[in-house]
Amino acid sequence: MVKLIMLAVGSIPVIVALLIAIPLITKPDIPFSAANPNDTIRIEYTKHQLKKISFGVTDREGAQKTEILLIKNNGEIEYSVTKEGYPQPQIKSKLSEKQIRKLTALIKETGFIEIPSESFPIKDDVMDYQKSNVKIILNGQIKQIHWPEQNATEKFIPPIITMVEFQLDQVINQISE
Fold first, then answer.
1. In terms of C-beta density within 10 A (0-12 exposed, 13-18 middle, 19 or more buried), how is residue 78 classed?
2. At 68, is the pLDDT very low, low, confident or very high (cuts 50, 70, 90)?
3. Structural domains in the chain (count)
4. For residues 141 and 113, is the Cβ–Cβ distance under 8 A?
5. Residue 25 lies in a domain
């Protein structure tokens, strides 16, 4: 009986999270009502394509490619890529007011700032994988999260993180074309 009660109490946060996340994932757009003109946001997004190199007794991870995207509150973007240790020319661009509001609304509407920072250990048999990092400063609140791609870890990556990652990858694709 006690186990049943503990199971029921433990499942309440999971059900609430699903009730919040499912509509957000299935909707094509985040409502702009979550963002207001006084919001200030700064996003630093980094992606590393990592490869494990074994030296027999020890392993070392090396970045084959690193991408850094910086989005400032005024919409200015700085994007830089380093491939196998060689930096590529930096790309500067600008996001529209609508795109900034969309990103801000996504961060605020999903509660991204409040999600707990977790550790996502990498499986031992994974040799090549992508690891991402995002640092968001929203109205003075700072949130930084590191995570690998889902197939490189046994832990579940929350959909909120993958939604933000998808939107930032779209920004990268837009400016690097």
1. middle
2. very high
3. 1
4. yes
5. no
CA dist 18 to 1, 110, 157, Å?
A: 26, 12, 14
Give the tens place of pLDDT for each residue, 159-175: 888 899 999 999 999 88
CA distance 168 to 88: 20
Q: Where are the beta strands (DSSP E) in the chain?
A: 41-54, 59-71, 76-83, 86-87, 91-94, 128-138, 141-148
What pLDDT does 23 receive? Answer: 65
- pLDDT attached to residue 168: 94
Angstrom distance (rounded) from CA 14 to CA 34: 23
Helix, strand, or coil (residue 44):
strand
Residues 117-133: tens digit of each pLDDT: 788 888 888 888 999 99
Query: Is there a domain that residue 131 lies in?
Result: yes
- For 71, list phi and psi in degrees, rounded to 5: -115, 120
Residue 144: give its domain's CATH number: 3.30.1560
Is position 63 within any domain? yes
